[in-house]
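Listing S7. Sequence submitted for prediction.
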Amino acid sequence: MEKQYETVIGLEVHVELATKTKIFCSCSTEFGGAPNTHTCPVCTGMPGSLPVLNKQVVEYAIAVGLATNCSITQYCKFDRKNYFYPDNPQNYQISQLYLPICRNGGVEIETKDGEKKVVGIHEIHMEEDAGKLIHDEWEDASLVDFNRSGVPLIEIVSEPDMRSADEVIAYLEKLRMIIQYLGASDCKLQEGSMRADVNLSIREVGAETFGTRTEMKNLNSFKAIARAIEGERERQIDLLESGKAVIQETRRWDDNKETSYAMRSKEDAQDYRYFPEPDLVPIIISDEWIEEIRSRQPELRTEKLERYKTEYDIPQYDAEILTSHKKLADIFEATVALGKKPKEVSNWLMVETMRLLKEHDLEPSDLTFAPENLAKLIDLIEKGAINRTTAKEVFEKVFAENADPEVYVEENGLKIEADDGALKAIIESIVAANPQSVADYKAGKKKAIGFLVGQTMKAMKGKADPGTVNKMLTEILDS
C-alpha cells in the first residue's frame, strides 16, 4: 500500500512596522529613496555609536501581541545575534532570543472546508532589519544599500500547526488583516514590509514525531508561498521515497523557475552566539501601559462584521467584502456618515471600485479618493443630475484622480438635459426616423422600444435619464 504523507508547516513572518523613524536612530523608514540616503552612524554600525530604542516600536509590538491573544513579557530585553553578512553593518543584529516581548498566542483561521482552527503563535519578538544587497550583473558585482538597515521589525513565529498551503494563506491573510487594522504596518508583500519564511517537514500520516524541516526564503507573494509549499512537499516526498534523507537547510525559492535550491545548512541558536545586548537596558512594561494600549485598540474585523449587519442592515456578503480591508471599511463608514444610504455606498465599493482595482492591479490600500467625492457622486445620481451610465464614467475619474464629481460634470457638460420640450422633440424625430421599430412595437414586440431608447440616448449624448426617455417613448408610441 502506498504511503500517505502529512505536511507540517510553521511560519516566521517578518513585519516592518509603520514608524516614521528606525528602531534605534532617527533616520527615516520611508520606502525607496536613493541608496544610502536614509542612514547615520548608528544604522551603518559605526564604532562608538549607540542605539536608543524607539518607544513606538514597543507599543506596536504590544498592540499586535494583544490582538493575537499573546501574553506580554513585562520584563523583556534585547540580545545580540552575531553573524557576518555584507548587508549587516555591525556584524551582529539586535534581536530578542531569551525574553521576547510576546508569547503563547494564537489566531483563529477558517480552513477550506469551513472548519475553524487555531494556529498557535510561539512568540513575537522585536528586531532590526538588515540592509539590502543589489546584484549588478553587468559589472559582476554586488552593491549594498543601508537604507533598510535598522528599520524596525517584529518577527511572528508560529507553532508548526499548519498542514497545507491553504491553511498557510488563511493564516497570513488573517495576520495581515489584524496588523493593517491596527495601523502597525501596511503589510505590502511586494515592498517587503511583510515577508514569510516557511519551515516545512513531512511525516507519514499517524506518525508522532516530526520529520526533518527545511526553511524556505525569498517568498514575496501569497501565490509564491503556495507554489513553494507544494514544490518543497513534493521534493521531500521524492527524497524519502528514494531512500534518501532530508537535510536540515535553508533553501531559496525561485518563483520563475518554480524550484528551490540550497543556500546554507540551517543554523541553530548556538551558532549565532547570542548574548544580552550590552548597549540597551531591559524594558519594563507596566500593567498600566498595557491597559493604555489595550484601550486604544481599534475595532477589529470580527466586531466590525457584526456591527455592519445590525447597524447598516446590509447582507453578510457585503459586510464580509467591505471589512476584508481596513481602507474599504474606512471609506464605507465615512461616506455613510455623510448621509448616504449604506446599500448604495456598498454597491459602488463592491462593484465599480473592485472592478477598477482589478483592472489596474491595485490593492484596496492604494485607494486615494475621498469619501466626500463618492458622496457627491451619489448625490448627483439621487438629484437626477446625471444617469448611472454617466456616473460610472465620472467615477473612473474620481477613482484615478480623486476628481470632484460636481466640478467634473459641470466642466464636461455631462448634466442631464432637464428640458422636457427639447427631449420630446428629439424622441418624436427618432420615432419618425424608425418606422420599422415602431411597427414592431405596435405588433407586440415590446423589446423594440429598447432600440429607440438607445437611439435617443445617443442623440442626447447620454445626457438624458433612461427612465424618463422610456416613459416618454411609451406615451408617444401608445398614443
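Caption to Listing S7: primary sequence and predicted C-alpha cells for the chain studied. The radius of gyration is 30 Å. Residues 299-411 form one domain.
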